[in-house]
Specification:
Helix content is 20%, strand content 27%. It has helices spanning 5-11, 17-25, 94-97, 122-129, 149-157, 195-203, 238-245; strands at 3-4, 29-31, 34-35, 41-42, 49-51, 54-55, 66-71, 103-105, 113-119, 137-144, 160-161, 164-165, 170-177, 181-188, 207-215, 218-219, 233-235.
Length: 264
Amino acid sequence: MDERLQKIMAQWGIASRRHAEELIQAGRVRVNGNIAHLGQKADPNHDDIEVDGKPIHPSRRPVPIYLLLNKPLGVVSTCLDPNGRPSVLDLLPRKLRVGEGIHPVGRLDIDSTGALLLTNDGELTFRLTHPRHFIPKTYQVWVAGNPPDSALQAWRQGVMLAGRKTLPAQVRCIQQIPGHKALLEVILYEGRNRQIRRVAEQLGYPVVKLHRTAIGSIQLHPPEQPALPEGQYRALSASEIEFLRNPTSSPLVSVPIHPVENKE
């Protein structure tokens, strides 16, 4: 059955749909010996498809893998960094890094830590990163100063960034060190570039430390289970995978508070 090349590449764990489109546009994909074009369709059972000269074999389709990683500071959320900085894939064993098509779902800044999903399910990555899908993400954020409730209320209602208002967010203060800093819990329903840092800066309380604790009901600190150590990963449970596939039908659980230490 003919399908778009980027969908085939996503299904085979070669790349997310967006990355697959970039590979096609860069001329790195061939179909039956000819350079492919964006929007082209093919059938992997009948057509010869190559990515960077390596053929796609239907019989070698990788088993879907779904992981939760606790990303450390100073690690980039990409498969490969042109500047030579460590990437999240460097935290995985070689058997997962090579030949499985694993990639991060979305990103966390190099200066941020916490929950990050990794998978080779390109179709799922496409759905989870599409603007139509809003999966709440929970953060613990140390900010400089002690923001009053009026500032937090402005954050909750939405703030103008680059000419567009942010979606309403859940924001509450967990801890204050008077005259110095405060720990906030922030739950976002969208993922604009460096959104928390930009909003906090605009409100006058810049971020000191940012840590993501949960993606929907998928938590670094699940109830009555050991917390996932920094730099470590675990496989998602069947219920967590089902949540990602059908987030609207899965109940979200409240995330327990485990304040992150601010190291200065």
